[in-house]
Every structure is written in C-alpha cells, then in structure tokens.
Specification:
Length: about 425
C-alpha cells in the first residue's frame, strides 16, 4: 500500500491559495531520508552526498539538503548557478557533465567545483579552456559489457555514451598527474533506478578493486570514489523499498575487504543520488475535470505530460491515489489523461481505481525527482507551481506557476511582443 503524505482535507485547504495542478514536496520525508543516508555511511569519514540537481532543481529544496550536509552534482551552467546562489562552492559542487561546453568548464572551475571528466579527450579540452589541470580531479569509468545483479536486474554500460574505457582511464590518470593533479577521484554510474540493496555494494566492489590497481600502477593518490546515482525507489506498490542502512553496510564490507588491506582506508565515499533523495517526497496533485466514455473509460485531469513527462516518455508507472477514497474498492478501470494533443499523454493506462467523480483530487506518487524538472511547453501548456509542505504543516510556494507572459517572453526580439503584451494585459495575465 502506498500512502499519500497529505490528506484530502489538507489538499482542500491548500487549493484555497494554490490552484491545481501543483507539485507538493514533503519536507519531513526528505529530511528524515537524507539523515538516514548520512547515518548509513557514517562509518566513512569523508562521506558526502552530492544531490543530483537535475532531479529537482529547486533552490529551497537544495538549501534543505545543504543544511543536512549535502553538496550538489551539477551538469549544466544553470545548475551551477543555482548551487552558487544557495552558497555552495568549492568541494561542495561536483561537476559531472558530458559533452561539456567550454564555458561550463570555465564556470565550474571559477566556482572551484570538483570536475569529473567524462572522456579522455576532455583532458586537453579542459586544459585549453581553463589554462591548467586542477589539483583535484575525477574521471568517469565505463567498464563496458553488461552490469548484472543476482536478482537478474541488469543495465548495459557497453551501450551508454558515458565514461572512459579502462585503458583510457589508466592513461588519463598518468597524464593528469604529469600535468599537476594530486587528488584523484573515480566515478561510475552503471545502472539506473535499481530497486535492490545490491547495486551500490557491487559497484563499490568493482570500483575499489580498480582504485587499488590504479593507485599501484600510476602512483596517483585516490582521494574519493563516487558511486554516483542509480539507487532506485519502489514506484509500484508491490516493490520493496531499498534499505539504505543495508546498502551502506554492504559498501562498508567491500571497503574493509578491499581498500583497507591496500592501505587505502582514508578514501572518501561520495554519492550523487537524485531519485532516492527526492522521488518519494514529491507528488503531483491534480484534479479530475472531465470523464469520457468511448471505447474505454477516460478521466481527464488538469495536469498533463508537460507537468510530468515520465509516463509519456518511458511508460513509467506512477501510483495514483484518489484522495479521500483511500479505502474504497478499486472497482473501476480508467485511463487517466492530460489535455495534450498526443495520445501518450496518459498518467495511467487501464488502471484499477475507485470510482472517480469530477472534482476529486488525484495524488500522483513518487514524482519528487525527474518530475517537474523534465517539464516542457508542448501545446503551449504552462508548467505548474511547486509547493513545500513544511514540517510544521504550513505550505510555502517554492516556485510559482508559469504564466503566458513567461511563455511569450522569448519573443521579445520581435515587434509582435507589443501585441502579445497588449493581449496579456487585456486578459490580465
Ligand atoms: C542523473 C544523474 C545522477 C542521479 O541519478 P538518480 O538516478 O536520480 O540517482 C547522478 N549522477 C549523474 C552524473 C547523473 O547524470
């Protein structure tokens, strides 16, 4: 059973100030979870979680994570700007990008961020761009092949565009060292949304062995190992959630078996989780506004794929609770749709739900990561607000809804901007 973190009554109060649709984030949930992450890795002195900003790029949520010790994993200029704006700099920022534009390297360097090179050719590119090789630097590893766990879950690093081959990696460290680098990191992201406690420990085992080999062969001092993201969440009600404490213990065992005997017990463990940090603590709240009976039964809601793209893009499952009907029988089968002129704009297909009446509020679960952030503006639809349900029960708007004025803002290079402004004013938009 998946339980919403708000009641129907709470949502009825919230909509008096903020109309649906909106994203709602649960401060208590995300704080407790972040503390549990730090507790699970407290055995490692240098542990740091660099929250993957792309998952939920909101400065208020980032500030909460920062207050709990998190840094930020960025991969673009605007993510770096957000991190800078909330006071992160230097080793609080990990710049794990790929296909990186020169100006972004320059900006990351200006902030003193730790730069994580995605490719061998970026050694020269970085040096040409910033005029040096930083003292602290990291490289992203791609072992190729498939990454398989005992439960059959696998992912396919050999097919992914990221990282360097093993040979390139060894060569890269030697070159970086000769150019003045002193502290080295290793980064790898080999499987996504893993709902098993095995992923990080297995990845850690591989990276720790690699680190020992690297340090021996190249003489480079391995300062940190970055397990990156990929720790998943149970989107479906029948899935069992990861146990972060068990994951931390699994990584510790590998650390003690592999790194400690090699005299590398001072290596810091870093993570760059996005989904695990925020996914379950955000929901898209939307209202049923139409019902349609043709060859199937449809419920039309006031949100659409512009607000949450994952189901349309990946066919992702997001659990839906009809607020106030938590205990009613699931005796109806609906497609829950948005209003885009795209037939994949469906939050659920053939979903068993209680009978939905117009005006019911639907709580779309587990949208706190890669939800709002993936939004776009197809069909000229506007993105909704983000709200924070605070620990004291109050609600704070942490991003306003987009307006038509925002949507038209980039026509300010045209004369028609005046006409649009005139229309906006007469429509009081
Ligand atoms: C997307 C991404 C993450 C976060 O991934 P999650 O699956 O949300 O944990 C971390 N690091 C890098 C480099 C990424 O691209």
């Amino acid at each position: 059973m998946k339980k919403p973190f708000v009641t129907k009554q709470q949502v009825e109060d919230i909509v008096k100030d903020f109309p649906t649709p909106f994203y709602l984030y649960d401060e208590k949930g995300l704080v407790d979870n972040a503390k549990a992450v730090y507790d699970a890795f407290s055995w490692n002195k240098g542990f740091k979680e660099y929250f993957a900003v792309k998952a939920t790029p909101n400065p208020v949520l980032m500030e909460i994570l920062k207050s709990l010790g998190c840094g930020f994993d960025c991969s673009s200029e605007t993510e770096l700007m957000l991190s800078q704006a909330i006071g992160a700099s230097g080793a609080d920022i990990m710049f794990s990008s790929n296909d990186t534009p020169a100006r972004e390297y320059a900006y990351a360097d200006k902030l003193g961020a730790i730069i994580n090179l995605d490719d061998f050719t970026h050694i020269d590119f970085l040096e040409e761009t910033i005029g040096k090789i930083p003292e602290t630097i990291s490289c992203r590893y791609n072992p190729g092949g498939v990454f398989q766990m005992s439960n059959g879950i696998m992912d396919n690093p050999g097919d992914s565009k990221y990282g360097m081959t093993k040979d390139q990696l060894f060569e890269a460290y030697k070159i970086l060292r000769s150019k003045g680098a002193r502290n080295f990191g290793i980064h790898a992201f080999l499987a996504s949304n893993t709902v098993t406690n095995e992923y990080y420990p297995q990845l850690a085992g591989q990276l720790f062995e690699l680190a020992v080999e690297l340090q021996k062969e190249t003489g480079c001092k391995i300062a940190f190992i970055n397990l990156s993201g990929g720790v998943g969440i149970p989107y479906r009600p029948d899935q069992e959630a990861n146990d972060i404490k068990a994951i931390g213990e699994g990584v510790r065992r590998q650390f003690e078996n592999i790194l400690v005997p090699a005299g590398m017990g001072d290596v810091s463990i870093f993570t760059e989780m996005g989904r695990f940090m925020m996914g379950p603590y955000g929901a898209l709240v939307t209202k049923a506004i139409h019902e349609k009976h043709i060859y199937k039964e449809y419920i039309g809601v006031d949100a659409c794929a512009v607000n949450l793209m994952r189901p349309a893009m990946y066919g992702s499952y997001h659990h839906i609770t009809v607020l106030g009907k938590e205990n009613e029988p699931l005796d109806h089968v609906y497609d829950v749709t948005g209003s885009l002129c795209e037939n994949n704009d469906k939050f659920a297909i053939d979903r068993q739900l209680p009978e939905i009446e117009m005006g019911d509020y639907l709580f779309i679960h587990d949208t706190g990561a890669h939800g709002y952030a993936m939004g776009y503006n197809y069909n000229g639809k506007l993105k909704c607000a983000e709200l924070l349900l605070k620990e004291d029960g109050s609600v704070q708007m942490i991003r306003r809804a987009e307006t038509a004025r925002d949507y038209f803002a980039t026509f300010d290079c045209l004369e028609i901007a005046d006409k649009l402004n005139h229309i906006l004013e007469s429509e009081r938009n």
